[in-house]
Design goal:
about 350 residues; about 25% helix; binds adenosine-5'-triphosphate; OB fold (Dihydrolipoamide Acetyltransferase, E2P); alpha+beta; transport; 8 helices; Rossmann fold; 5-stranded antiparallel β-sheet; 6-stranded mixed β-sheet
């Protein structure tokens, strides 16, 4: 297994796009690491650069003890699973799984043994003689993983491995992937644009934008204390409420009220700020932001309420379904204790 050490890494396409831009990153041996970000932020390019499928323009890539920056893809000790799985359509499942050994000219017996043992662990034993076209999306994904495992690589790179699966299979595959990674202890980097997936699976997450890392942290850190308003907006199934306000006398003036930030902030009075309130931490209160109920979404056990407030819209206020307010009524809501985040209105960085 291996650490991954990226230093000053840039990847520039022939058209001049700097898809990865001076990036530093250390991934620990055995870690399950997510690259998360919106479309076009450079996640796939970074993964392909680590794999050696794109050449870096600047910087170094060290895997374990070895500088592989100029080493060919096939010799880096890296296995990559692509978004479309890239299985060989004319080969059976068994042949697909043992392919890396065939390339290395391993004996027929070794190839067969690898196919048998890897497929057993992945629930593919019954499918060894089928071809990829005769498999479901989830089964194809497992064959692609099995093939990657047969490579006995030190590093596993996964590019949106769950994106072709329907919602239910995706959930199953998540659990499966997490268990597999833990059992094998493989250093794994996976790319996703799905924040829920990254939060659920990863030991740590790098949130990317424009070829750079905006925030690096555990799922908890990234969810609870997004470093800037971009990350705040990107993470969370309902986006965070970001309200324009002013800091004065130790309080944040926002949407016609004054909210207390957790702890003392070293801001001067009159500083423009953005108040961040996660919908999950927003509750009905006697004192807080008052607004008119404009939308009520019934989710079964709970209902999500949208409030139109002075100059702002507050989304995701969660109330028990039986307490659902009528549209047009007035409600007051406030962040749970310690859950108000304050961002500098100019730099958009967490204060
Ligand atoms: P997605 O989630 O949509 O796959 P991504 O975060 O993986 O996006 P990349 O595919 O790495 O992003 O693309 C990063 C940037 O590089 C984008 O601006 C993209 O248009 C550009 N790009 C990607 N591939 C190439 C290429 N072969 N030639 C030129 N530009 C490219």
């Amino acid at each position: 297994m291996a650490d991954i050490e990226l230093t000053g890494l840039s990847t520039v396409y022939p058209n001049g796009v700097r898809a990865v831009d001076g990036l530093d990153l250390s991934i620990t041996d055995g870690e399950f690491f997510a690259l998360l970000g919106p479309s076009g932020c450079g996640k796939t390019t970074l993964l392909r650069t680590i794999a050696g499928l794109e050449q870096s323009a600047e910087g170094t890539i060290v895997l374990g003890e070895k500088d592989v920056t100029r080493v060919d893809a096939g010799k880096r000790g890296v296995a990559m699973v692509f978004q479309d799985y890239a299985l060989f359509p004319h080969m059976t499942v068994a042949q697909n799984i043992s392919y890396p050994l065939r390339v290395r000219r391993a004996s027929k017996q070794a190839q067969q043994d690898a196919a048998t043992s890897t497929s057993a662990g992945l629930g593919l034993s019954e499918l060894l003689e089928r071809r990829p076209a005769q498999l479901s999306g989830g089964q194809q994904q497992r064959v692609a993983l099995a093939r990657a495992i047969t490579m006995s690589a030190e590093v596993l790179l996964l590019d949106e491995p769950l994106s072709n699966l329907d919602a239910r299979l995706r959930l199953e595959a998540r659990t499966f992937l997490k268990r597999l990674q833990r059992d094998l202890g493989l250093t794994t980097v996976f790319v996703t644009h799905d924040q829920a997936e990254a939060l659920a699976l990863a030991d740590r997450i790098a949130v990317m934008a424009e070829g750079r890392i905006r925030q690096l942290g555990t799922p908890k850190e990234v969810f609870q204390r997004p470093a800037d308003t971009f990350v705040a907006n990107f993470i969370g199934s309902t986006p965070m409420n970001l309200l324009t306000g002013t800091y004065r006398d130790g309080l944040v003036e926002v949407a016609g009220t004054r909210l207390a930030p957790p702890g003392d902030l070293t801001l001067t009075d009159g500083t423009p700020v953005v108040a961040g309130i996660r919908p999950e931490y927003l509750h009905p209160a006697s004192d807080g932001i008052t607004g008119t109920v404009s939308i009520v979404e019934n989710l079964g056990v709970t209902s999500l309420v949208t409030l139109e407030c002075p100059g702002e819209v507050l989304v995701g206020l969660t109330v028990p379904e039986q307490d659902e307010p009528a549209v047009g009524t007035t409600m007051t809501a406030a962040p749970a204790k310690g859950r108000l985040l304050v961002y500098d209105g100019e730099t958009n960085q967490l204060v």
